[in-house]
Amino acid sequence: MEGASFGAGRAGGAIDPVDFLKQPQTILRVTTWIFSIVVFGSIVNECYVNKGSDDPELLCIFNENESACSYGIAVGIIAFFGCIFFFVVDLYFQQISSVKDRKRAVLLDLGFSGFLSFLWFVAFCFLANQWQRTKMSKGVSQGADAARAAITFSFFSIIVWVVLAVKALQRYRLGTDMSLFATDQFAADPSAAYPGYPTGSGIESTETYQSPPFTETLDTNPKGYQVPAY
């Protein structure tokens, strides 16, 4: 984009909703937002089962490890609200006139995307490991599809958040076009002449002439010659 500042146009420019929704970054955010709903929704709704028909206590389907379910739900909720927050930031990013504020927003996006990539990687490994250790039973088989969905979309979330981190890094490397924020004191015409030194004072310099280097040993007042007085 011509005249871009951290991947956005001039501050205060009009926002086209259609173009905004077509941007790859917006599509990725909506995608990972849906993935987060699938993960924590699957765990909350179908990954808590009864251990036995006569036992009303609900246990986590992942090897009866409550930490696995809690961690998956927590990461899903963090990703859910994080996607909403950065979706709003992307929507109003072009309205930010300060270069420093734009830089902070891009760095925050980069750090959060990298952090979520790590959390989803841990979630995928944790859930997959606990699911392998789970003993199949009637209750477990009922929620098996939901458990597999949580594991699968945890893996997909890693990929999407890594791509978002790369996109944020690319935006950061774009840097800033300072000409967008230049003040009126600079000439707008690139062919304008550079101002020279002031002239026309009419006063000659009174400084005496200094001999060039390596000539100190020469006789500056030879015999028969008188220095004229000015």
From TrEMBL:
Organism: Ciccaba nigrolineata
InterPro entries per the UniProt record, alphabetical: Marvel, Synaptogyrin
Chief location category: membrane
Keyword Transmembrane helix attached: yes
Keywords, sorted A to Z: Membrane, Transmembrane, Transmembrane helix
Pfam families: MARVEL
Residue intervals passing through the bilayer: 30-51, 71-93, 105-129, 149-169
Subcellular location: Membrane
Family indicated by similarity: Belongs to the synaptogyrin family.
Residue ranges that the Swiss-Prot or TrEMBL entry lists as coiled coil: none
The protein's name in its UniProt record: SNG3 protein
Boundaries of every MARVEL domain copy: 20-173
Membrane topology listed for this record: Multi-pass membrane protein
Keyword Glycoprotein listed: no
Any one GO cellular component localisation term in the record: neuromuscular junction
